Amino acid sequence: MAKRIAQSSVNWAALAERVPAEQKAHLAAFKIKSDGYLRRVLANPPEPPAINWSVYKQSVPIPGMVDNFQKQYEALKIPYPTDTMSAQVDAQWSEVKKAIDQFVQQSNANIVNFEKQVAEIKALLPYDQMTMEDFRDAYPEQALDPINRPTYWPHNPEDQVDYVDPENKAVESHH
Questions:
Q1: More reliable by pLDDT, 63 or 24
Q2: Do 60 and 66 meet the contact criterion of CB atoms below 8 Å apart?
Q3: pTM across the whole model
Q4: Tens digits of per-residue pLDDT, 71-86?
């Protein structure tokens, strides 16, 4: 019995690192229960105590009674509980692992895109050295374009003739 418990011992420190802060109290309570169970199991010997049947055969006057008890005692096998949850836990872990791998792939793709954007920004001229034409070439959607997209001063979106406030869009459509 002690061998089986030693084989399935839990690395509590590694487990505690992965538990979210709001679950720490539950983990501590679970560890206390587990340690109490382990102490109770280890307090008992791994095998049932041996019985000296010959002493009982001499002192019990009823014939066959001790032999009957001996057969029953030796036939008694207390089953160790079968592990029914490991398969479910492994299946859950494989699902979680797929999600983790997918997240890592997506994150790596995002990293590549962001590094590309950083490289593009680093390749630009510093703003204090840019002319208006350089700014227009770098950011065509933000630069002023008086020929193709004329605007009124102060050239803010809300100061233009065809401006629609996105927050009050539904209110204005009722008029």
A1: 24
A2: yes
A3: 0.41
A4: 888 888 877 778 888 8
pLDDT of residue 56: 80
Q: Is the peptide bond before 166 cis (omega within 30 degrees of 0)?
A: no
**Which positions ≥6 away from 31 have C-beta within 8 Å?**
12
What pLDDT band is residue 119 in, cutting at 50, 70 and 90?
very high
Q: CA–CA separation, 94 vs 100, rounded Å?
A: 10
Q: In angstroms, rounded to a whole number, what is the distance separating the alpha carbons of residues 50 and 89?
A: 39
Six-digit token string for 84: 């029914």
Return left, alpha or beta for 60; rule: phi > 0 is left, psi -120 to 50 is alpha, else beta: beta
Question: For the chain, what is the HEC assignment?
Answer: CHHHHHHCCCCHHHHHHHCCHHHHHHHHHHHHHHHHHHHHHHHCCCCCCCCCHHHHHHHCCCCCHHHHHHHHHHHCCCCCCCCCCHHHHHHHHHHHHHHHHHHHHHHHHHHHHHHHHHHHHHHCCCHHHCCHHHHHHHCCCCCCECCCECCCCCCCHHHCCCCCCCCCHHHHHCC
